[in-house]
Amino acid sequence: MNRTLIPLSLLLLAGLAGAQKTTLTIESWRNDDLKVWRDSIIPAFEKQNPDIRVVFSPSAPAEYNAVLDAKLKAGTAGDLITCRPFDKSLELFAAKRLTSLNGLPGLNNFDAVAKAAWSTDDGKTTFCIPMASVIHGFIYNKTAFKELGLSVPTTEAQFLSAMTKIKASGKYEPLVMGTKDQWESATMGYQNIGPTLWNGETGRKGLLSGAAQYNKGGFLQAFQALERWKPFLPRGYQALAYPDAQNMFAQGRGAVYPAGSWDIGTFRQMNPKLEIGAFAPYSVAGKKCVIDDHPDIGLGINAASKNQAAARTFLTWVASDSFATLYANALPGFFPLANVKYTVQDPVAQEFLKWRSQCGKSFRSSYQILSRNANPNNENDLWNVSSQLLNGTMTPQAAGDMVQKNLASWYAPQKGK
Amino acid sequence: MTYLTRRARRPFPWHIVVFLAPAVLIYTVVMIYPILASLWLSLQTRAADGPEHFAGLANYRRLLGSELYAQPLWNAVRNNVVFFAIHMLAQNPVGLLLAVLLSFRLRGSAVYRTLLFTPTVLSVVIIGFVWKLILNPAWGVQRGLLEPLGLQALDQPWLGLPGTALPTLGLISVWQNIGIPMLLFLAALVRIPDELYEAARLDGAGGWTIFRRIQLPLILPTVGIVSVLTFVGNFNAFDLIYSVQGALAGPNFASDILGTLFYRTFFGYQLQPGDEYMGAAVAGVMLTIILAGLLLYLVTVQRRLTEVEL
């Protein structure tokens, strides 16, 4: 054997030795979480299951669906698929890309509501383990509030007067959000303060049955309430992207940040010294608050995976309380949906969690069924009109009319309304 | 008999086939087949849960006939025309000007040439990222550069306003790509023999006359080629818009061009599922526009251009 062949054969041998371990690859859109999975979640699992190796392989959030579709079609997707809620995953299951999880012991830890986002319409088959939900609300800069002598607002009037005061002080940007990426306007704006106005599930189910419309009642009022944010957005907000807003708030340059609970972890990482607190979506006209407790992440098995048994082992672990505790604390702001015992240490995350008992609960209006049509797509329409509303290129009525017209163009219960 | 002898003297030119084969094969596999397959795909459709079946021109009828598809399509075509116009009005004339200046063999022209060409070799992702940072209203250097000059009025969210997003992207693209027409023009200018300049100067011609009467006519074929390259490049453009504005090409599709429309239709975006058949139809429309433009150029311009022998 000459000198080049020896290292080569050693490499081959190493490869053979490694082959005895099963390797599971996880597809995900949470590229922010790479470190957490690599450093805490996966090692905890591998310790209990030494013969399974897990690789977390995320792609960029906005491209995830397209990337995943392409990989599934080409047969190169990983063994475990992180599931978007509702239609996207249902579509994958219908196309036989995901394995049915019925009979998986861990599924007993979830109630029907938690499983709804990842089950067939009749609720009989579940194809992803519910992993986490996210809650919408506001994160605020405690230092700024103390400095300006402000208290946490609970009504819209208090919120707007606090905004006016912050703006007048000139030191902080009152409401840190940009409209360039468009989705924040709908997700952190419209869907954040909206559920209170359209009475949560009553309004959302009204859209599904045809009893409620986007261009009247609570849904229109939500557009009107969103428009009142306009004077308080930062300079040049039309060109501020999501990471820009995150950075601006993390640097302490802003007072209030319309948030998804997932932002807690981001701010903790970006600037551990920033003192943050949280308050729930304010009430408007005396209505009881309703929060968006949005099922966000599930985990399913690629039907084409060769490692079905190992994948089921992993999912059973994901349904356990040890995973829930690990996950809720490693990623404050992602709240486990399992009915298992876990405690959250982060005080801001605890605050978000508290609203589950104080306010009504619903989730984003466009996610179930209403975005099932490729074009026009209800979710994308809401992004567009909410941004145009904040950019001042559309009135609330025009925003509601456009979304309603597009929805009515294909969704039978809304036809002619 | 004579016929046979002639055939014997001129055997079939196998060497041409042999030499062309690799290129033809590779080109067919990686270019022609995918184009044809994509066109074929645009003629198919599939009902929910049904099998794929032939649909004729139904996808194109939907694309051009229903408001839902036609409105974004024409918006994208219009934006594409604007994008192309910006390149034709800014990139190519300025590229030509720079090439003429460099052809005078100024001191340090090699340095200028390198500097002007550098953006061209950088990745579009880097270009997009850098310009996003420069123009960022929160901490971009734009503000710091403009304020000392008393130009606060120019400190606008250029990428976020419906009226300015597309021109801004067009100018970024011009900045990046200006090196290519510049080098092509320069290569053509360098080929012009010095005797022509000397003769012109003896006749009392100034710089402008030399450019009008000698340089421009002699590089006209290159101007044509650069225009065609710009046209094809612009109507295929996607990467810069996608890296700066995302697939939604905001605000409100103000910077949406055919490339981003194709991406959203074919691959889907966020909750919007992709539709490969309609996506292929959009690609078909792009191909048609590019082919039509090329044919127009070949018929009306190319035939009138004559290469001058020097």
TrEMBL record, chain A:
PROSITE patterns (UniProt xref): SBP_BACTERIAL_1 (PS01037)
Superkingdom of origin: Bacteria
InterPro entries: Bact_solute-bd_prot1 (IPR050490), SBP (IPR006059), SBP_1_CS (IPR006061)
Signal peptide start-end: 1-19
Keyword Nuclease: no
Protein family (similarity comment): Belongs to the bacterial solute-binding protein 1 family.
Function: Part of a binding-protein-dependent transport system for a sugar.
Name of the protein in question: Probable sugar-binding periplasmic protein
Protein's organism: Deinococcus aerolatus
UniProtKB/TrEMBL annotation, chain B:
Compartment(s): Cell membrane
Keyword field: Cell membrane, Membrane, Transmembrane, Transmembrane helix, Transport
Membrane spanning residue stretches: 12-36, 81-102, 114-134, 174-193, 214-233, 277-299
Membrane topology: Multi-pass membrane protein
Record carries keyword Cell membrane: yes
Protein name: ABC transporter permease
Domain of life: Bacteria
Stored InterPro entries: ABC_transporter_permease (IPR051393), MetI-like (IPR000515), MetI-like_sf (IPR035906)
Domain ABC transmembrane type-1: 77-299
